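Q&A log
Question type: sequence-to-structure
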Amino acid sequence: MISTGLLAGSPEIIPPKTKIIHPMNWYAEQSSNWREETVRNKTNPQAWVNYFTASRYAQQPGVQLNQIVREMEEAVPGTFELLLVQGWNEGFSSKSYDLLGRAFAMKPDDPSSYSSLLLLNELLLNKQDRKTFCNKLFESGLVSGSLLNYSYNVLMSLDRDAVLITEGDNTTIPIFILQDIMNVREDVIVLNLDLLLEPIYRSQRLSQADIKLTGFDGFITEDPKKLLCSTLPLENPDKKFYYALTVSGENIAPIKDQLYVVGLASRLSKERLDNIAVIKENLEKRFLLDYLAVDFNGENELAAVSV
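Response status: OK
Response body:
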């Protein structure tokens, strides 16, 4: 399906990927459209937010995103929207936490900061604050019901006390919501590869979960995520490791021959696993399947799902 916005060449609001996911070319087109809008109306902060968001979702290089931020600083200084974009552009850092915290303090009822503050509180291991923003994000309606259903089935694909490796915000956030707000599979240890690249978090989170990792330095390897995916199970043979289906093929390449799809996650096993039997049991006894056939939420076909 081709978006009407793509055909019309007009700017459309860019929703978060936890709500709706568009094709990559749609984001690229919208980036161009919103760029034109900022030229026409330079002091419109929402135009800048949409321009930055579309550009980021279109995977434009960091130098381009930095340029958008610099232009926005000149056009709409002191605004909530500027703090938001500056925080997003800083990634996972104390500076990002400060910027987004200031944005939240300025407009606590605006949900735009919730997802990032949820993840940043996980980075700081602030469990209660993570739960607070899980609740705020869930109540905001910015996480699609389809994505929550899918994420429920991801969790139900796992054995008790499993370790689940995830990658990307819209894969990890709904799982945290299910665990924190709905008490679903709180036994599962969720390790996000993006967060694990931060040394202090990595050390503290793995220690908290009683997971060993020695001799790892993500700053001296070209593929730190790939190394994490293969090294963690090697050093922790007593734990059951699973990988979300959205983890990139490149990152699991060294262990792909040991991975067995068991539903909406892959299980690592050095011995041959009858995964067909496991899939059958999960489908028949554990999964929620109604959302695949009937849409009870009125969501469109672009509603976010982690596939």
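Response note: The chain has a mean pLDDT of 91.
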